[in-house]
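cron nightly-structures :: item 1 of 1
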Amino acid sequence: MMTRKILILDGHPAQGSYCEALTKSYAKGAARAGHDVRVHRLAEMTFNPDFGTSDFKKAPPLEPDLQAFWDDLVWCDHLVLAHPLWWGGLPARLKGLFDRALLPGKAFKYNRGKDMPDPLLKGRSSRILMTSDTPPVFFRWIYDSSVKKQTQRQILKFVGFSPNRFSQFASMIKSTPDQRKDWLDKVEDLGRRAA
């Protein structure tokens, strides 16, 4: 098996979440398989999530934690993102991380005469690990998997990540300790395979 450079982002804005447990399991499996792993935890990062301007040319400089995340994003060939589903979408702080870090000229490039910009982070794949209280059938058929589409297509694919695989862990509120352990074991196996 080819070793990979894996960046893991625990995208939960609080410490001690099940997202943190998922990222630890993935990292454990990946490290045991010999992959090179770097981990960032949103709850430990210090930055202003508000882009704060309507002009990309006036983008505020990246704080050290955002710069470190960006550097590791460029370094990696596989991104693992764990996040909860909150009000049908990403937590605001996680969305702010993407707003601030994925900038034109770095993550994508506009070209005259083209409707869509060129992605500048090609050659990388991703795995999204989403926790939610929403049962999977409701997520798919009632809510149309909207955050999955946003994260896979409008964020990661937009800047070049592909393929972008998705795993949902639900319903968290109804899950048993045995079920949660089984999920962690499955994620550890994903890490071993860098899948």
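cron nightly-structures :: done
The mean pLDDT is 95.
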